[in-house]
Amino acid sequence: MRVFLCDYSGFILAIPMSSVCALMLYENEARQTVEHNAENGNTYISLPRLFELGEENIRHGIILKNTEDEDQNIDKNRTIILTTEVKCETELKDDEIYPLPKIFAIWRLSAMFSGIRFDSRPLLLLDTGQLVQNLYKELTA
């Protein structure tokens, strides 16, 4: 599986390329964890704020694929994940990724990850669908 790797203090985040439409530079400041821009309909999710790592610099926006209509304008009605700098893209073998140990269940964000690889620092595989679903539930609750 092809992934983008983003470096956070304490772990590396892997974002599956299969769920990514485009990558963009992001130079604004994220004031909230989730922000909706009424002008263009885009929703921005700040991972450093979500992970409570406010000191991390946001460098890239990852525009997620819209499963309803891939022919839509890339600038409107999109979900954009704001993250630290995308360091590289790489291939992860399925047998390198393991289910999250049950101990991770105490971390409220654990449901947003579909797997883990242990190296010098853990690599967490982001489940973008679960991330979006959980955050939209919180917004509409």
Describe the structure.
The chain contains two helices and ten strands. With 141 residues, the protein is mainly β. Strands 8-1-2-10-9 form a five-stranded mixed beta sheet. A hairpin with a 2-residue loop joins strand 1 (2-8) and strand 2 (11-16). The longest helix is centred in the last third of the chain and has 13 residues, at 128-140. The protein is globular, with a radius of gyration of 15 Å. The N and C termini lie far apart (34 Å).
In brief:
The chain has helices at 47-50, 128-140, and strands at 2-8, 11-16, 20-25, 34-36, 43-46, 60-64, 79-83, 86-91, 113-117, 123-126. The protein is mainly beta and 141 residues long.
Please give a handful of descriptors for the protein shown.
2 helices, globular, 141 residues, mainly beta, 36% strand, 10 strands, 5-stranded mixed beta sheet
Runs in which pLDDT lies below 50 for 5 or more consecutive residues are none
Number of structural domains:
1
How would a textbook summarize the main sheet? Answer: 5 strands, mixed
Span between termini: 34 Å
How confident is the prediction overall: mean pLDDT? Answer: 88
Strand content: 35-45%
**Overall body shape:** globular
Structural category is: mainly beta
Report the C-alpha radius of gyration, rounded. 15 Å
Strand arrangement across the biggest beta sheet = 8-1-2-10-9
SSE topology sketch:
Layout: E1 2-8, E2 11-16, E3 20-25, E4 34-36, E5 43-46, H1 47-50, E6 60-64, E7 79-83, E8 86-91, E9 113-117, E10 123-126, H2 128-140
Parallel strand pairs: 2-10, 5-7
Antiparallel strand pairs: 1-2, 1-8, 3-6, 4-5, 6-7, 9-10
